[in-house]
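Hi everyone,

Forwarding the result from last night's run.
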Amino acid sequence: MRVERIEDDIWIFHGDFYESVATVFVHRGKALLIDALGSDADAQWMQAYIEGNLLAAVKMIVMTHYMSDHMAGLRLFPGAQILAHRDYLYTYLSQRHRTQDDDASYVAPTATYSQELNFTWGAREIRLFHNPGKTFCATAIDVPRCDLVFCGDALVGNIAYIGSSAPSLIDNGLAILERLHRGRIVPGHIGVLGGGAFSHARIYLKRLGDRVRACRDADAIANIQIEECLAPGVQPVPFEVEWHGRNLGVIAERRVFSVGHDASRVAAVYA
């Protein structure tokens, strides 16, 4: 667990569990938290740092999406307003690996929004907007004067994870974020990325799809290497390698990227 200060009033917490990320904005002893890490130990460390080192009390928590690996700290700040997109519950219930422990510690949001919400926190102008991609409830958080955008799990480093959605929907969400032209990107895992990460993730999706469609069997799909799919000049980190492997498993299970061909055959039958 470590903390990184990126502005005078903004700190990023890097959790040990799944490399989940949370961010805090502090103004006059009041803290705005974006996401809440993935384990009790990480969340408790963050709480102690915010209250003991930054001398701040968390008053609002904005959730980029409602999955358990970003929710551990919600119950540690009972007086805080928790804000999420209105489709949060669909995302939470759709998790493939949701456990009884997750349900036992679940905390619902205290407020929801629909399409867009703008507010200020200290000197920061903050814009929230609905940007479905990996999840239907995905919220992007744009802080223009910081050249900064928070995107949750829209990408995983320089790749994207396809296990919770369709590649076309993920790519559309990435394209919207790419058009913001922000120089710093904070996703839900790993840490701060450069402004090219959205483009890199889109290239990964396209190259992955091309290679899957060129494969003749499941064994060939399982052997697709991440390096074949990355944008030029990008070197994979272990977390990206792990999630690329998960993508290959999802592709084998669901025949992702081949649905269009199947639909063509169905149309021919009924023509």
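The longest strand covers residues 21-27.

Cheers,
N.
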